[in-house]
Amino acid sequence: MTDVQLVELTVNGERHDLAIPPRRTLADVLRHDLGLTGTHVGCEHGICGACTVLVDGAPARACLLFAAQVEYAAISTVESLAGPDGELSDLQRCFGEHHGLQCGFCTPGFLMLAEGYLAEEPHATREEIREVVASNLCRCTGYETIIDAVDDCASRRRAALQAALDPVPAAAPRPDPGSTA
Amino acid sequence: MGEPGLRRDGTWVGASVPRREDPRLLTGRGRFVDDITLPRMLHAAFVRGTEAHALLTSVDLTGTRAVPGVVAAFDAADLGLGDITALLDRPAEEFTPTAMPVLARDRIRFAGEPVAIVLATDPYAAEDGVEAALVELEPLPPVVTEAAALTADGPPVHDEAPGNVLVDVSLFATDGIDSILDTALASSEQVVVTVETRTGRQNALPLETRGVVADWDDRDEQLVVRTCTQVPHQVRTVLARCAGLAERQVRVTVPDMGGGFGQKCVVGREEIAAAAAARLLRRPVKWIEDRREALTASFLAREQHYTARAAFSRDGEILALDADVVCDMGAYSCYPFTAGIEPLMASAEMPSVYRVPAYRVRGRAITTNKAPTAPYRGVSRPQYVMVMERLMERAARTLGLDALDVRRRNLITEFPYRGINGVTYDPGSYRESLDLCEQVLRDEGWPGRAPDDGRVVGIGYACFSERTGYGSGAFAQRRMQVVPGFDISQITMDLDGTVTVTTGTLSHGQSHETTFAQIVADRLGIGYDKVTIVQGDTDRITYGWGSFASRSVTIGGSAAAAATDKLGEQLCMLAAHLAGVDADVCELDGAGGVRAGDRTLPFTELADVAYLRAHLLPKDVGPGLTATASFDVAGDGTFSNATHGCVVALDPGTGGVEILRYVCVEDCGVAIHPRVVEGQARGGIAQGIAGALFEQVTYDELGQPLTPSFMEYKVPTAAEIPDVRIEHLETPCAFTANGAKGAGEGGTIGAPAAVLNAVNDALRHTGVELDHTPLARADLYAALNREAS
Known about the structure:
- The complex is a heterodimer of chains A (181) and B (789).
- Chain A is an alpha+beta fold and 181 residues long.
- Chain A is 33% helix and 14% strand.
- The radius of gyration of chain A is 19 Å and the shape is globular.
- The radius of gyration of chain B is 27 Å and the shape is globular.
- Classes of the chains: A alpha+beta (181), B alpha+beta (789).
- At the A-B interface, helix 1, helix 2, helix 3, helix 4 and helix 5 of A face helix 1, helix 4 and helix 18 of B.
């Protein structure tokens, strides 16, 4: 059981070469080998979702995956959401504004769940969001404010997209179509 | 000052400011116990007894020690620790002391009891080591149910308690109560209604399981224990006593905590064992409870059985209440509260929000071969509120009256009110909250607006109050040998005019860093971002009692306020001296300075003198800017109150329940941070609904746990928990800082009764009344289809 295997893992865009036992879970590798302790472990059997990360953009339970299974996949954790200067993402801000977290233990899992879901379903309704939020467990909030936060973030993203698509007011300078910037 | 522009009337208290905790928690940069890694750290796992009741005849760890990666393995004899013993100052007929060994020595009292600790270089190897342990048990007949415990025809759980009863207290017994009840039984003008309720065993279920990282620090000559506990000083005291250390040789710190809800407000044996192993090995030791352990071998709660009868006059006035309470506390008495925590709470507070003129109660704590129990959010109040609210409903049905009118007839409306239980209730809005709750549901069109889809609809209410801010006086009435209550706070102003404030309470999700900062900021007239709260460190904080019983803001917040006010006086005296005016013409200017006559001295200037130019200080004033104050409640505490209203739809085809609407009208006095208060209510209601409809820890007839994972222990998700409309009333408390009352537990207290009453309302046409929780689908299906069978 102490045999090790060489595993190449890409996490938040950074490549890591690891020598780990094949039975080592992705959650343990992220937390204890890479020091990315934002991914939390609440049940180790795939129900609570505190360990949710994105694997190639899709939410996945890091406690149910061996790190060796996700070699060459792109893995994103909660540490990828904020800017390099610590500036919160729109989703993180919405969680704060709606009091969508109390103790904060389940929060990274809900953030990554929502991040993956909204990328795929930007037009999700509140009831659809509720169904997805039902993937994970939270013991503090009663869920309502988590649903509010995700719903609000989705609305803001849609509004921002719409604003970008709307004709630019005549007074504003139009971007140069030839620009590659 | 970077103010977020949320101040109401220029104050921080009452504004839902951004939480100080949020940025780190949102970015994954919080620090929970399992996030801590120390050099040369070992990982612990526990060998556990597999029988519910057995003699422990031998523990052989030879194979364990040979497992690659295993560094050491210890059983009870190896660690040689003293037992954990929680005591009540009550006579032998009322209380039987029992001890909880840190590791089992000669007896297994529940399946999952720790027998040995294995230390390995990684947690996987530690679990391999557990697999290799050989434990020989000689099974005894297990005591699994209340009936088996009270029959007591086999070996008892504890030899000291041959009848399996640890606490047996009869209280109040108003003169003439028997004749009141007998008269009511015989009279055509009065009725006696009875209710027998049972509530299932539950797990408080913080999403972060218990855990500890301990190491012996040779430089400080201290065992440093980072543990997720609600009661750090109590862990220090128990560890010091069990291990024969001085209190000073133990430092307990609490990092970020992923919830507690009471499960972590008692001292756990695993944290003591892991710390002792770290001391023996002179290496850091980490133990993180896995979910299976959390579900089977941590502290549970709530399994209670009530038999209550009440006499009512024909017009619905309650005349007498007679109750018998049996709480199944499992295998051990928890420290510091003892097995008396649940029956004593129920017995003392059962009359609830009603004027009960005659009262008698017998409260018992029984011991069984199941995992032990700890206080869980609400502590018996969800159960006795359920009893009282079922009595109100049953009386109304029996008398042909409206159930809300029966409540109104009996609600306490004049304050302060001294109850039959000897408790004085401070002002609340009992009647107002009921009226508003009913009005909100009526205005929204319930129950008429429920969809006409073949389901049957019911509406239910629960009225209750919740004693918060238990001071030493209130806890002394329980007669615990250690009496919690007070809190001590120290405030220090630094050179830059910012302050650091200690509190003996600590947040495990309740936002102390924000709410305490709001309280202090208002009193000093600085931004709440200029206040740093220190919590959960026994070296930095004078002996404290942690956070439980909704005591943090009421008692801890008041201590912080008192310390802040003292510092304010110091600042004024210093300013008076420097400005050459009398201190009585000096006052804080509300903007980070002191107005001293016609001069204004900013705090930074005063701090500069206090620290860097002490030669300018008056002769009788020492250097530094620091103040300490304590707060306690001499009287009976302060009562928050609420009314919950709930609309359910039951599906006769499946027995399924849907909560169509949930309304909570709550009054916790002045809300320091309204959004945090609402969060506490919503989260509490979710846990109450969980207990009413979903969660139950079950065992087979041999005492083997049947709910060891989330596949069996059904925790509700966003699909089951409804949105909650919350309305606030505000009856300020007269003796806490800012008029705040506790807000942590109410949601959990009211929800089971409201849901149960709504379900029974929906079942009205069947003639079936259900008085237990959780309500299984099968129960509801059977009730709904009774006519057909």
